[in-house]
Each structure stands twice: as structure tokens, then as C-alpha cells.
Amino acid sequence: MYRCFLNLNPDERLLVKSIAYCLLITFISFSNPVWAADDPSSPANESHFTLWQLPNQTGTQIMSYVMKTTQGALIVVDGGMPGDAPYLANFLKERGNVVEAWFISHPHTDHFSALSEILKKPGDLKIKAIYASLLPPAWIDKNASEGEAKLYHEFVATVAASEHVIQEVSPDQSFNFDGVSIEVLAVKNPEITHNGINNSSMVFKVTDSKKSVLFTGDLGVEGGEKLLKSPMAERLKADYIQMAHHGQTGVSEAFYQHVAPRFCLWPTPLWLWDVDNGGGKGSGPWKTLEVRAWMEKLSIEKHYNMHEGLQVIE
Ligand SMILES: [Zn+2]
After folding, report:
1. Nearest to 188 by CA among 146, 147, 217
2. Domain contains 280
3. CA 98 to CA 95: how far, in whole Å?
4. Domain-embedded: residue 113
5. Structure confidence at residue 3 (pLDDT)
6. What is the pLDDT of residue 24?
7. What is the pTM of this model?
8. How many structural domains does the chain have?
9. CA-CA distance, 185 to 170, in Å (whole number)?
10. I want to staple 51 with a disulfide (CB 3.0 to 4.6 A). Which of 57, 86, 265, 313 is the partner?
């Protein structure tokens, strides 16, 4: 009843060949795990972390970020002032209350004081590790202002009185949390005494299969130039950049050009965004408007502004 393949006419042979080819392709698509892993919608690629830029609670400039891996691990960067602590503590509580790693970019009050407050009354919050690259006390006493030194010593004492220790990071150190990579690209620069604490900001890059985010803390021009000349410079390119020193007098334009971000994270209150010291836009001494003009030239796709409230990046 059925004719053999060789007995079919050319049109019928072509039809049979086409059906066989389709069946083969379908089989390979469903059976080959390498192909599946290349599909961005496949479970193998669902290692994307969520990043939140938290809004300030007291009107001052602050820096506070929380990241969450797909497995629920929380990573915190800085945290803000004492007045930001209740909001941050509640934010962490709603997301499981276990912090895998807490990074302090540098020892200034608008970055570490929320952590200080939380360490005094941690409640049920569990913090597994605190990482920083701290300038030593003798450097602070010699080079920092009286106010900076007082707050630095209070912070170190608060951590010492808690059950935690600050773990020093080293250049090129890397971490991995559920497929999210964190690379330390720069640490303290004790030889830079001008704008010294800011210029000793830890710089690190967080990367997953979807995006990369460069954190610069409050890095200044000198620390940025040193990093650009270091072997780490080739690893600075990132999709997102946290604007250095709240987007005011931070790193140079050349630094931003080198990173070539598509998205900017601004831990910047509205008065600083508009350089408004009470006398209207542009009335203050800060360089934010100039930095905003630099970013215009880079054709940034989106700006995430702290003054517009909680920002989320998937
Ligand atoms: Zn700051």
C-alpha cells in the first residue's frame, strides 16, 4: 500500500524531506540543554539580582542601596544617616531580615550611620558580614576634620561593641552570591590626603547575566584618576553607574566616559540635583549641573533619581 521513498515523485520526496527536517530540529530544540541555556527566558539564566535605590528620610544627601538575589540573599551598600535607619531596617525586614553582606563604601556619616543605629538595636535582623576598606585611626586623626574623626571613632566603637567585625577587602577580591558576582576594583588610598576619606571610597562592580552596576561611593577626582591608570581600569565598564559623591564634585568626566554607562543612579536629594541652596536652581556651590551636562553627552537611557522616591532596577 505504501510506496518506497525511491518510488516517490520529486515533489513528494521534497515534502517528506521537509517534514523529517522539521521533526529533527524540534527534537534538538527540546533535548539540547546548551540551546536552552542560551534562551534568556530559560530558568538557567534567572540569576538576575534586583537593586533598590532607597530614598533619604531626612532631606540630607545619603547613599543607600539594597540588592536581592533570586535565592533571596540580601546585600546592602551603605545605608544613610541615623534618621534613615528605621526605614532601612523595615525594608530589610520585609525581605527576610537576613543580610548576607553589608558593604560600607567609606567612613562618612551619610553612608555608615544608619548601620550604626541598626547595630545598636538590631532586633531580629541578622547580618552575616560587614565589609569595608577603612583608613586606619592614626590616618584619620592626622588628616580628617575634627567632626569626621569623631564620627569615625564612634562608628568603629559601635561595630566593636556589637557582635560584628569589619572585614577588610583587598583589591581584586571577589564575591559570589547565587550567581551574582561582586568584584572589588579599588580600595583606600592613604597617600591621597586631599579630599582623603572620599578618595578612599571602595569601588566595586556587581554583575549578573543581565546587567552590571558600578558603585563608586564618594570617590573624588584623584582617586578616580588613580583607578583609571590601574590594571583594573579595563574592568570599569558597566551598564549602570552610581554617580560619585552624590553626583556633585566626584570623579572626572573622563572617568564617566571610560565607564560608558547607559543608566545613572543618583543618590542625590532634589536641592543637590538642582544646586539650590535656597536661592533657586544653580544658587549653590555644587557641581551637579555640570555633571548632569556631562551625562547628556553620554546619551544616558535613563536616570534613577533618589529625589523621585524608591527606585527599583530588575
Ligand atoms: Zn556621601
Report:
1. 217
2. yes
3. 8
4. yes
5. 42
6. 39
7. 0.85
8. 1
9. 9
10. 313
Q: Is residue 211 a part of any domain in this protein?
A: yes
CA of 33 to the centre of ligand 1 (A): 46
110 CA distance to ligand 1 middle (Å):
5
pLDDT at 249: 85
Alpha-carbon span 103 to 109, nearest angstrom: 14
Low-confidence ranges of the chain (pLDDT < 70): 1-47
Helices (H) and strands (E) in the chain, counts: 11, 15
Cα 254 to ligand 1 centroid, rounded to whole Å: 21
How far from 178 is each of 14, 68, 69, 181, 211, CA to CA, in Å?
50, 10, 6, 8, 15
Give me the CATH number covering residue 60: 3.60.15.10
Handedness of CA 135, 139, 140, 143 (dihedral sign): negative
Range of the domain at 65: 47-313
CA of 256 relative to ligand 1 center, distance in Å: 18
Residue closest to 75 by CA, chosen among 95, 56, 46:
95
Ligand 1 centroid – CA 265 distance (Å): 14
Give 193's DSSP letter.
-
Distance 127 CA to ligand 1 centre (A): 23
The 3 state secondary structure assigned to 215-281 is ECCCCCHHHHHHHHHCHHHHHCCCCEEECHHHHCCCCCHHHHHHHCCCEEEECCCHHHHCCCCCCCC
Q: Cβ–Cβ contacts within 10 Å for residue 126, how many?
A: 13
State residue 47's pLDDT score. Answer: 65
pLDDT tens for 222-234 read: 999 999 999 999 9
Whole-number pLDDT of residue 163: 85
